[in-house]
Amino acid sequence: MTGETLKEAGPQGLASALVASGALSSDWLPSFKAVPRELFVPDRIWPGIADGTKQNPVVYRSQDPEAWRRAVYSDIPLTTQWDDGEHEGDGLGTTPSSSNSMPTMVFSMLRDLDVRPGDTVLEVGTGTGWNAGLLAHRQGGPNVVTVEYDADVARGARSNLDRAGLEPTVIEGDGRSGWAKGAPYSRIIATCSLLEIPATWLEQTAPGGIIVAPFGTEYGGEQVVRLIVNGDGTSAHGTFTRSSAFMRLRQQRTDRPPFEHYLRGREWPADAVRSTTTLAPPDTGGWFEQFVIGAAVPGTFWRAERYDNGAYTLWLYSRDTRSWASADYERDRTEYEVYQSGPRNLWDEVEAAWRWWDDQGRPDFDRFGLTVTPDGHTVWLDHSENPVPVRA
């Protein structure tokens, strides 16, 4: 929570904080005032934090209205569902699966979307309906379609929008398919993280239209990308605008096979080859570092096994279960033990990706971009002719 919102737990306090930070621009201020966040937040919420993914204990409006209102008008995300609705009780679930997003991110992405009078908008990931409500107020309900996969969440959003007097079209369905009946759209915005931009979205976007979406890698890390679609709907090209941490589109979640699938009944380290490295495993673990590594080392994910005194083992796995690696970290060491097994030397790939990024001067997200074509997705540095080298 910002100091501003703590002093004034209400719409004006939040608006002042968002305007001061540059997230809320003057053209979105009327919609912010006309579409109160509190109309789109249920009685029971788990407040998040502004920087990170930590969740705080449950808050009920019916039991503690002051704490609930303070959370609603703070610049934080609010978890409204855990584990696809399977979670029971008031404790924290395993994985957040629906939320009312952090206001700074909401209005920053709406600014990226750059809607103009008459633009039609497709939103994927309705959630509580606040983002769709803001768009419907500005563009008019007939010009906004929002798609939500979860039936209970979609019903809740419809109820919230009705209470606010707003009438975008709410579709219950698979967001990857968009909604062809309303196409072509001038703008598409996703409020969930993607590993792949669906080709259908490009096809349903008008020539020169804009797609704004959080784009992540299987390895980790995520950034919001702003894409411009070409004339025939077969490709899109654009730059990353900011770091983000959204819930993954349900149909693009990835499985994490257990370690036993990699050893195949053999005793560790099996046939792994030992080596050493001078790259400290923690140096590869930052949010953006993970993003760059993920772009360069596809089909790979990691786990950390932690011990006393800050020591841990970084485990690397290939999705096909054929390759794995480990790198052991201990404080006050300058050389670290590595084991690698399988047709891919995963630690070598990760280290090569990190050193490439280091050699470029450790550029941040604002120098990277993305091109989407029928052949796949290419992350690049500075311009599309300079792709991130793929190591696999």
Strand order of the largest sheet: 7-6-5-8-9-10-11-17-18
Mean pLDDT over the full residue set: 95
Give the helix/strand class: alpha+beta
Largest sheet: 9 strands, mixed
Oligomeric organization of the protein chains: single chain
Percent of residues in beta strands? Answer: 25-35%
Q: Helicity range of the residues?
A: 10-25%
- Determine Rg (CA atoms, Å): 22 Å
Low-confidence stretches: 1-7
Number of helices, where a helix is a run of at least 4 consecutive DSSP H or I residues: 11
Secondary-structure element sequence? HHHEEHEEHEHEHEEHEEEHEHEEEEHEE
Number of strands: 18
Roughly how many Å apart are the termini?
Answer: 42 Å
Identify the overall geometry.
globular
What is the secondary structure topology, with strand pairs?
Blueprint: H1 3-7, H2 11-21, H3 29-34, E1 44-47, E2 59-60, H4 65-72, E3 78-82, E4 96-100, H5 103-113, E5 121-124, H6 130-139, E6 144-148, H7 151-163, E7 169-172, E8 185-190, H8 199-203, E9 205-216, E10 222-229, E11 236-243, H9 260-263, E12 273-277, H10 287-296, E13 300-306, E14 312-318, E15 324-329, E16 336-341, H11 346-359, E17 368-373, E18 376-381
Helix pairs in contact: 10-11
